[in-house]
């Protein structure tokens, strides 16, 4: 994710960080060349009575803008939901640890609990980005749960199971009454919802046909546009044509990027930083020290 | 559901998987022929002072685009809700099994419980696709519940009843206090919500009049369009006309497809794969082995 | 509600079931006559330099389409919420009966409970459609609650009170601990939400001014439209004008119809069939037989 | 709130009840005079080559329509949320009284409870409309809570506190176990949400800048519009210009009205009638008689 | 936040409070100068056949309006959610104190509890506005929690921890049964959600690329617009061009302002006043006196 630096409105016109320009630069250049071709071929093209006028393109442009608005809404809703799920992860894990402290559970037990909670966040991150969590888990998991979790193909869910077992043991040892057990178990159910919600976003994209239809229509629209504009605009065709194409292509490209918010593109969620925040919060609450260092955006204001 | 392969933006222009093109190809051809007819008949047609101009079609096109945007929103919302319900199915069943393990219920009892949970998902799938679940249920249901469930016309709901009875028996045998019973029973209520939510989506379509009105207006619009464009565009009429028609017809067709997300069309939910995921997850949690194989998309990237 | 039969896209163009055409036929005919008048009077009308052009109507048409989109959203949201409330009614009543069975309450008591639950659905239907529930209630209510419920001006709420009393008695007789009582009572609260939610939709329409403003602007727009189109379109004016009017009037009319989803128009909710479904489900769960017959759509695919 | 009478589509064109026409009549007259001025001054105005054409106004009109759609959405969402909160008030108070009856609490205690619940609704109404609740409260509050509640600057919240104390006393007297107490207390939390939600809507308007920007642009747009239309429409300018202005001004005015749904304008919520409904419902449940009379709309179909 | 004074529609046209005009005045002046340049250079500019017409700008303007509508929706949703979280803060803290009073906990304990609740609100405000809470906390925190909370880098979360400890102690001292403890602890979970929700809004802006794309396209659009309008409008170009630019720039600027609702700009949330309201409410409930004074808007109707 790109961190937004405070800046003047003018400088922002030329800001390239977080921009989708690199993704669409090639297509914009193509569009520019089409526009130049349109300007050059205009005399011949008119003689063949092959005319394109702006009227149908205006209708088409507005229709595409409406559908693109719909697509942006759908993609952005996924981004927002993904962020909310990670926000809830921090919230729920803080709640669980607060409960463990309020109920004065044994400090040693509480520390394994904290370790499992932190590991759950990291394991979820690895699962969503399809990277291997082994290295992290080997170092940080409590000894008794380690083997079982590392052996499982579904590590995050196994950690949740271990959290449940920890809670069940507290109950069997009499540290928690059934009532208190149930109060904390409800927060484990919440973790289950977070895990399942993230998996749902990661595995079920917006129906592929939406991408296809919009990708094609936007592309074809931008390609034909210069030929429609050239009659009115002549030498201004390349400028206006590239401008209109930039508007449509960049929003289409951004919608595509946000659709999968767990990726590592510039506008995706900074899962590493979020895990780091969770770890700092929980360890601070558990009075551990020193705390891990806070992740900072790199020189390009990028936070992974 | 079509699984989206990583691919270049250019290749996507010619990607036919998951496309709704087959559904609208006939109507697009009709439109092309109308456009050719419009070009050919133009001289006569003008002499009769039967004129169609783009201005009213522009107004109409934008209005239809707005209503189509509304219809796509409504259809997509049904798709998303259906997916969320199936996501919640996985989440809730994992929570229930986690609770059963945390509370150290007897392994034999836990296995019947797992079998019932898995059967619930498959029975729901069969109910939503209106196929017969008998074969599956005969093989996988615990012996004592089998006859009763197979005899019922509402199999999924009967399985939920059997899950409730299982829970009640645990309470009567003293394995669960009233408090713990209630904590798990709340998750059965959640299963009840999932079942009822899916039934609602399956049995109540978007009011039929919306489909009718949009279907007719889109169709008539596309049919008349070439006659309006021909005055300005002459020989370019077929190209532009088919392009505009493609945009409107494909979105109308996709909205129709997504409206019933439990079907087996290319953009519908992969209920088989979702049931398979649930089965793998629960059996893995219950330490059963070997686990069922994970469903893979077929050669056309299709997942049923 | 109109049940959608599987059908070919072509046949749907001429499908009249569920259509709002009958409601707007008179206004469409008026519009057609205005269009003919516009064509006939065009020469005079031009001489008086009373000109109407498409440009301002295009602006107005798009603005009205946007506001109509807003109105359709609002109406459809009411329809969806109403359907969800009735879905939750089925869900919650199934949950309550499942709980009663799991907790092994006395069969006789369970049967009165089932009867009350079914009666609640029918009484709610009668209340929303403002019909008299007396006949049904006299036949199906448990004897001891009958007099009290029939005497009340708020029958559905009284049945809910009777359900609460039934639950309180189970607790006093020791069949339910306070914990189990509370677990079931929460589902009665849910019934209370359903009752109140339906009452809210039935008694509070979308602010009347929205209907007025859109009704008037759509109507005036359609009336003036032919005079604006005639300059460009001449003899095609009636066709295009009726087409545009159809699009606007039918969506306005449908929005009006959906706004009150508990009515008996073609696109309203099939409350009879929903009550019937609830009755079948609960009686099947309670192992009663024979089950009531399932309501089927009539010859016009209409389900009340 | 205006109650919608059943009526024919034609009569509705001339229905003034609930209309926002009175609010915008002056501005419409101004617009009419501007249009007349535009028609009269057209010859001079053209000679000075001060031209306004419809094209930029078309663009501007559509943009304003889109932003007005957004503003209507935001205002209507506030109206809907306010109505839902008052719906929940009825729902929750009915649930609380049902619980009190199911648990067979002493009738005398139940009557004070009912009185407090009814008073809560009326006090909330007075707070939202910034009127003095003293008179009502003096007559209806239970004697022991009266002084304390009347002395408080936050009456509704004090009544909620009294409800909590009542519940706490039932627990201390042994009439409610901790479990049952908690079950009812959860509904008091719900009342707390209703109180806070209404306060939020009443004290935090939509950001003022939205009103300002739209108010200004709509106004300026309507003022300049006749000068843009006159070239094309000549003597029809006043008619079309007033029509377009009516569409924009009436929706802007209605959005302003709905933004504060607790006022006493024609389209605001009928808080008096809602309080009356709550009072009738609770007293009927508590078997009191005679019940208060039901508020009826006045001769102008207005319900306050 | 600007408090809206009751005022006439005419005066509002010239109301500068809460307006975003100051932010965009420079850009509007630039636009005015471009328009003057366009008018002056028009003869040369035409001779070079460098033509810009309104048609492509109309298409572009509508597309940008649609995307701007989307951006305003997203920003406003953040504003609304932020306000709801602060509304819930008041609601939940009132509920917690009501519970403490109903359960007749010791007055001294209740006072520390009240102090912690009030401090939580102020600490959250300081965290969101990135100011130092030390001064306030030193004066108002209960002595025993002070050192620990002041030492923590995450003050608000530490106060929540102290609230949890307070609750745990009440349970250990026998003042609260496990059931009652859990009932209150659920409201602490709610505070945890409020804290996490505010942090989420404060740390995760709308993806930066949206701002960039819209900022650039709006800016470029406004810059080129006069050159497109000049052919039609001549000397009216500056007026119309500045008007259109005002509409687009002001909405873009407001969307930017609302995106971060915790700031101190004119349209942001009045966090000081909200904390003050919470403090008055809680102290009034706790029968403390004198109550703090209610914050009033300053002479410019501004409430911080």
UniProtKB/TrEMBL annotation, chains A, B, C, D, E:
It is found in: Cell membrane. It is a multi-pass membrane protein. The chain crosses the membrane at residues 20-42, 48-70. Pfam families: Bestrophin_2. Its main location: membrane. InterPro entries: YneE/VCCN1/2-like (IPR044669). Keywords: Cell membrane, Ion transport, Membrane, Transmembrane, Transmembrane helix, Transport. It comes from the Bacteria. The keyword Coiled coil does not apply. One of its GO terms (molecular function) is chloride channel activity. The keyword Transmembrane helix applies. GO terms for cellular component: plasma membrane. Belongs to the anion channel-forming bestrophin (TC 1.A.46) family. This is Bestrophin. It comes from Azospira inquinata. The lineage of its organism: Bacteria, Pseudomonadati, Pseudomonadota, Betaproteobacteria, Rhodocyclales.
């Amino acid at each position: 994710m790109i961190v937004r630096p405070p800046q003047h409105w003018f400088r922002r016109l030329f800001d390239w960080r977080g921009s989708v320009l690199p993704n669409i630069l090639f297509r914009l250049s193509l569009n520019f060349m089409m526009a130049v071709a349109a300007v050059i071929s205009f005399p011949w093209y008119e003689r063949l009575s092959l005319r394109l006028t702006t009227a149908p393109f205006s209708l088409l442009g507005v229709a595409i803008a409406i559908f693109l608005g719909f697509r942006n809404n759908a993609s952005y809703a996924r981004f927002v939901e993904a962020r909310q799920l990670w926000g809830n992860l921090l919230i729920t894990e803080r709640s669980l640890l607060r409960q463990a402290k309020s109920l004065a559970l044994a400090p040693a037990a509480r520390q394994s609990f904290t370790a499992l909670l932190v590991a759950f966040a990291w394991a979820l991150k690895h699962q969503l980005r399809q990277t291997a969590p082994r290295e992290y888990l080997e170092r940080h998991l409590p000894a008794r749960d380690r083997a079982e979790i590392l052996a499982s193909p579904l590590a995050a869910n196994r950690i949740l199971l271990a959290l449940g077992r920890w809670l069940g043991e507290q109950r069997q040892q009499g540290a928690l009454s059934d009532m208190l057990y149930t109060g904390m178990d409800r927060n484990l159910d919440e973790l289950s919802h977070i895990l399942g919600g993230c998996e749902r976003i990661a595995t079920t994209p917006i129906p592929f046909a939406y991408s296809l239809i919009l990708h094609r229509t936007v592309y074809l629209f931008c390609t034909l546009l210069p030929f429609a504009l050239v009659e009115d605009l002549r030498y201004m065709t390349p400028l206006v044509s590239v401008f209109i194409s930039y508007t449509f292509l960049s929003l289409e490209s951004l919608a595509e990027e946000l659709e999968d918010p767990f990726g590592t593109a510039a506008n995706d969620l900074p899962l590493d930083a979020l895990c780091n925040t969770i770890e700092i919060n929980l360890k601070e609450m558990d009075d551990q020290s020193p705390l891990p260092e806070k992740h900072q955006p790199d020189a390009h204001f990028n936070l992974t």
